[in-house]
Amino acid sequence: MDYLMSIFLGMLPEVIFFTLFLVKTKDLKEKKIRLGILIGLVYFVCVAINLYKLIYHVSFIFLVYLILKLLYKKKAQVIDIFVFSIAVAYLTIISLLIYIPQTIEQYYICLAVNRILLFVPFIFRNKFNIIYKKYCSLWNRNYEKKQPVKSITLRNISLISINCIIFLINIICIYILNMSIKWGD
User: Fold this and answer.
1) What's the pTM?
2) Helix spans in 27-150 (H)
3) CA angle in degrees (0–180, nearest 5) for 139-85-43
């Protein structure tokens, strides 16, 4: 029963979140269902089978990029790794909410709030693609046009950000493992 609940209340909403995030950000029109299914398979293999191991969370990000490359070939760019990392970081941060409660009733309340917070960014879904296009234009070098941020600066900021996200995921995994030991799971 717990396994089914973790699939329907845990993994399924998260896979839908990741799929919607990519569809809205990259303005994908076709192959949405295939994208969702492949993300679900990769998510299950990387995250669900090996809980709280950083390498699988990081490999999930890169495997999603490979899925994008496989399905959308020319639409997939290296910057998609950095963009998708934002979605992973958001999910990681709101996942901490589940580990605050002391009782099972508080846990279910926090889980409900967590699932609501998971989809709150989609209030601004129309801005996702605009921001993505701006990010792409600043990422690519353009010597003919004056840009407010040099592409090398943006690339360095993106690399530092993804390293911070990986560090954050690692800290949260350690925190969750320590909480599990404390609770006796």
Assistant:
1) 0.83
2) 32-43, 54-72, 79-95, 104-119, 125-139
3) 140
Longest dimension (CA), the chain: 61
Percent with pLDDT over 90 in the chain: 25
- Written as one letter, the residue type at 100 is I
Measure Cα distances from 88 to 27, 91, 158 in Å.
Answer: 19, 5, 14
Rounded Cα–Cα distance for residues 10 and 46 (Å)? 14
Looking up tokens 């030991």 gives 181
- Pick from 137, 158, 95, 123: which is nearest to 20 by CA? 123
What is the model's pLDDT at position 1? Answer: 62
Q: Which two tokens stand for residue 103?
A: 């009782």
Token match 């192959």: residue? 31
Domain count, the chain: 1
Instruction: Report how far residue 139's alpha carbon sits from residue 154's, in angstroms, rounded to the nearest whole number.
Output: 6
Are 175 and 99 contacting, i.e. CB atoms less than 8 angstroms apart? yes
23 residue type, one letter? V
Range of the domain at 54: 2-183
In terms of C-beta density within 10 A (0-12 exposed, 13-18 middle, 19 or more buried), how is residue 19 classed? buried
